[in-house]
Amino acid sequence: MDSNLFKYVWRNSRPEQLVILGLVVLAQVFYFASLNIPKTIVNDGIEGKAFKSAQTVPFLRIDLPIPSFISDVGSIRLFDGLSLAQWPYLVGMSCLFLVMVTINGLFKKTINTQKGRMGERMLRRLRYQLYDRILLFPPAHFRKVKQAELAGMINNEIEPLGGFIGDAYVQPAFLGGQAITALLFIMLQNIWLGLIVIAVLAVQAFIIPKLRRKIVALGKQRQITARQFSGRVAETVDGVQEVHIHAASNYERADIVGRLGRIFHIRFELFQRKFTAKFLNNLLAQTTPFLIYLIGGYFVLFGDMQVGAVVGVLLAYKDLPGPVKELIDWDQQRQDMQQRYEQVIEQFEPDGMLAAELQAIPNAAAPALSGAVQLNGVALAEEGGAPMLDAVTLSFPIGRKVAVVGGAGGGKEALAQVVARVAHPTAGGVAIGGKDLAELPEAAVGARLSYVGQDVYLLPVTIRENLLYGLKFRPRGPAAYEGAALRQRETEEREARRAGNPVLDVAADWVDYEAAGASGPHDIDQRVIEALRVVELEADVYRYGLRGTIAPAERPAVAESILKARAELHSRLADPAFAGLVEPFDRDRYNRNMSVAENVLFGTPMGRTFEPDNITANPYMRKVLNELDLATPLAEMGVEIARTMVELFADLPAGHPFFEQFSFITAEELPEYRALLTRLSGRTVADLSSEERARLRALPFRYIEARHRLGLIDEAMEQRLLAARQAFAAGLPTELASDIEFYDVARYNGAATLQDNILFGRLVYGQAQGADRVGDLIGEVLDGLGVRNAVVQVGLDYNVGVAGKRLSAGQRQKVGIARALLKRPDLLVLNEPTAVLDAATQQRLLDKILAARGALGVLWTLSRTAQAERFDEVIVMQGGRMTARGAPSELSGDKTYTDLLAAG
Amino acid sequence: MSIHEEVELLKGVPLFAKLEPNKLKLLAFTSERLTFAPGQELCHQGDIGDAMYVVLGGAADITIDTPSGPLKVAELKKNGFVGEIAILCDVPRTATVTVRETLTALKITKELFFRMVTEFPTMAVEIMRELAHRLDDTNRQLSAMRARAA
Fold first, then answer.
1. Is B29 on the interface with A (CB under 8 A)?
2. CB distance A709–B25 less than 8 Å?
3. Surface-to-core class of residue A841, CB atoms within 10 Å of its CB (0-12 exposed, 13-18 middle, 19+ buried)
4. Using the beta-carbon criterion (under 8 Å), do A768 and B29 form an inter-chain contact?
5. pLDDT tens column, A446-473
6. What is the chain A residue with the closest CA to B36?
């Protein structure tokens, strides 16, 4: 990248800059023409000087004045004009003035739009190039850079460049042109006035930049401190757990306070100097009119100058300080931007950048790797650190199952990383099938080699997207666009090309189905599920699926299968072995395992209207209950609940966990209810205020008979609440219809989870292991109907959260391994990927993964040497060197190996 | 069963004999009452324990694993309690409890257990008494076995 911003801008936007410059020059012609008009209006149109000698005066006659020091011709006539009398002439000249102003305005608008677009294109280009360079950074460089600083540089620090790039050439040309035009005009009117103006300008141009030199230096400091500040904020966020564990929050505060102080001083200093510069600038600018009045007036009074000329000079001068001031501003901005640009660019030029060709998009699938993996004198060392690998030379056929064992720091991890090209050897080289690994295109390595380390990184997308991420080497099929979308896409592509961005479409189909052994989107999930089974993640994803929801209109087949499972489950629940585990939803029966509110609603709330917190106050719900005379019985139930709560929780200290877990009433509310009950003694709820009644009425809404067992809902009450259920559904206003999905045994409920759809009822309270037993039964039913995979597919839509944090560490590792397995690489390099799992699971996964790999190669760095016996060959690493290798049975004589075995 | 009936039932359990009625009600309200079908396990030897159970009805066998298979060491009947060792000493379950006749039990979580023992010393004494009985039983069995072995 060019280190000079101007060169960079010129090289990448020459044609656009020239077009805009052309427009600017054209604009000057009109601008100059418009300068003469006010003078003519005053002198001839109003004062009528030209009409003293003639009846009519030519209108729109264009004369180009020639200064007397060039020639004594006076002027050159360009257009003879129309003859007009004084009044029409004044009208014509005034209109002309308006037209000129409009034309000038239109020029300004066009130029600004063009500039803005060009600036944004350049900014886009620059941002893309910087991002592109991150992708080309050598792997080791990422240990030295902070991600927040990189992101801040690409996003914020170069943002002002966009505005400036549009102005880089145009602004000085435009403003300079304006200033020169105005200056020329002044010179034509009076050469002395012109010289004075030039002299003042020279002083301005000399002093101001001097004042600003320090400002630029301060700007640089401001940029660096601000960048480090955002880096520190990101560090606090990343390490917030450590901050809390070690009670370092105040130390962190101190650090930030110190930084903010430094930033404040830099910024304050900056403002001070800026305003001082501004003050001087303004003062100098105002000196000029002072001189024009004085000297121009002198020429009018004692010389041969016309008043109109002085007015013209003043008007021209009015336009002069603006451009000049802006020019000076521009120059300061130029220095600031150049400095900013350099600052950013140098951060993006680490040593050892990867060759861009390695990441070129291939036009065919990468050929399979074959032959031997050959390491020749491979060394790997951290800068200034001990060597992790020291002249390792070895070779093994790519299809072999090779284990690497050794103590900590023995070099086994480094060996795996070098073979997978995750780390680049500092000396020596790795070749596969005779081809230098360092020179293989990234697409080939990505498709044909795979690596899973101890810390898998997941993107905050679904499990499926994370798994398919390993198959996106190149776009396979364009996204389908039609009509307006197609035109939009074409515009976007054109724009991308203009900004030097590659024309890649993230919406295209990037998945290499063939690499995973699938033929397209319809059967890729099958391969995904197989990979999940190998790493024992399928059961987890199945559970996510059960907790997931689907839109039945989008996946009618799944919805239908779930309805079948619902029917099957309920027929199985009739078995005496499962009797009493589930209380099904039955429109005609009160469900004792649901709350009162749920019983009346008898459906899943969609949106906020009927959520538990809102339901008590819902006007429609209240109307239904009032019409059925349920308000008083509910308030009486509320009294009973309040009485029990006051009795049970009276002695418990506030903040006791029971309040949270079991009470209908918070500790703070308890005294209020106690007072309410005292007021109630000897009276009925009808005597209470309507507000108090409402409070009491709200209590039973959350009451679940089977769980709370206060015996509040008898047979008669059940019937009345059932009547309320029916009334609620029958009279539901149409505007509320979309807020609830009623339970209907024949319909899939899109608002409820798959599991709730299958269960279609509530687990009965107090059944030991009830949830587990019903869960097992659902599993059996789904297996029997062959719809387990459909549930797993829904589970694949589970979003793993930022950095996969919604999964456990073990699950993340499993996703990572499944992702690597899915693409069926020729060599799978595993660097203790299962270390976070327990020993038994590790062993099972090892066997399953080795079996799944078939005849394809595996290089596995083991933390437990005992597992090495499953492999064809073992490489023993110690002190960065290979000390022994051979089949596990051949190594029984090797002391290092037997020691490692003994250590476990 | 409503909470009032349950309180009546709890009054009959020696472990809670000296608790005031409103404390019993709180206990009934805050702890889970579970029904176990025959064949189900309250706890399994070696598992991590997080709760003890007070039996309100039904019967279960207490077995421990031995090299020659499971060995029945005791029976659990109404008013008995089980599972206190695992939560007292933070050790895995020391025995397996398998239901013989449909059993209902009050599940008292570790947290609740400790709170109750601190708040109601009479309950702690009752548990100590039961543990002492069991220790005495074990000692007796051990000396009998020694005598037999000698």
1. yes
2. no
3. middle
4. no
5. 999 999 999 999 999 999 999 999 999 8
6. A768
Instruction: Name the residue ranges covered by the structural domains of chain B.
Output: 3-149
- Verify whether the Cβ–Cβ distance B37 to A768 is below 8 Å: yes
B6, B40, B111 ranked by CB distance to A769: nearest:
B40
Residues constituting chain B: 150
Closest chain B CA to residue A581: B35
Looking at beta carbons, which pairs linking B59-63 to residues 24 or more positions away fall under 8 Å?
B59/B99, B59/B100, B59/B101, B59/B103, B60/B36, B60/B97, B60/B98, B60/B99, B60/B100, B60/B103, B61/B97, B61/B98, B61/B100, B62/B95, B62/B96, B62/B97, B63/B95, B63/B96, B63/B97, B63/B98
Q: Which helix (H) or strand (E) holds B89?
A: helix B84-89
Question: Residue A709 and residue B36: Cβ atoms within 8 Å?
Answer: no
Residue A71 has pLDDT above 70, yes or no: no
Å between B37 CA and nearest CA of chain A = 8
Tell me the shortest Cα–Cα distance from B105 to chain A, in angstroms.
9
**ipTM field:** 0.78
pLDDT digit string, tens, across residues A150-195: 888 898 888 888 888 878 887 787 788 777 877 887 787 777 777 8
pLDDT digits (tens, 9 = 90+) for A289-322: 787 778 778 878 887 777 777 777 777 676 676 7
**Mean pLDDT, chain A, whole residue set:** 87
pLDDT category, A52, cuts 50, 70, 90? confident
Tell me the mean pLDDT in the region A617-644: 89
Q: What is the pLDDT of residues A839-898, one digit of tens each?
A: 899 999 999 999 999 999 999 999 888 899 899 999 999 989 999 999 988 988 888 888
Contact A766 B34 (CB under 8 A): yes
Cα A781 to the center of its chain, rounded Å: 42
> In this structure, which topology does domain B3-149 adopt according to CATH?
Jelly Rolls (2.60.120)
pLDDT of residue A251: 93
Domains and CATH numbers, chain A: 5-347 (1.20.1560.10), 372-474+804-903 (3.40.50.300), 549-585+747-796 (no CATH), 592-742 (no CATH)
With an 8 Å Cβ cutoff, is B141 touching chain A? no
Half-sphere exposure of A661 (CA within 13 A, CB side): 11
Chain A residues whose beta carbon lies within 8 Å of the beta carbon of residue B40: 768-769
C-beta of residue A801 within 8 angstroms of C-beta of residue A343: no
Closest approach of chain A CAs to the CA of B73, in angstroms? 23
pTM above 0.90, yes or no: no
Nearest to B16 by CA among B145, B106, B86, B143: B106
B39 close to A (CB below 8 A) = no
Residue A95 in tokens: 């209109």
> Within 13 A of A109's CA, how many CA atoms are on the CB side?
6
Q: Which of residues 572-591 of A touch B (CB under 8 A)?
A: 577, 580
Alpha-carbon gap, residue B71 to A361, rounded angstroms: 69
Instruction: Please state the φ and ψ torsions of residue A351, each to the nearest 5 degrees.
Output: -70, 150
Query: Would you call B32 an interface residue with chain A, using a CB distance cutoff of 8 Å?
Result: yes
At A455, give phi and psi (nearest 5°): -135, 95
Distance CA A323, CA A316 (A): 11
Confidence of residue A817 (pLDDT cuts 50, 70, 90): very high
Residues of B in Cβ contact (< 8 Å) with A711: 2-4
Query: A577: which chain B residues are within 8 Å (Cβ-Cβ)?
Result: 37
Q: What is the mean pLDDT of residues A41-48?
A: 80
Average pLDDT over residues A534-539: 94
pLDDT at A669: 84
Are residues A735 and A545 in contact, defined by beta-carbon separation less than 8 angstroms? Answer: no
Q: How confident is the model at residue A797 (pLDDT cuts 50, 70, 90)?
A: very high
CA pair distance B15, B82, nearest whole angstrom:
12
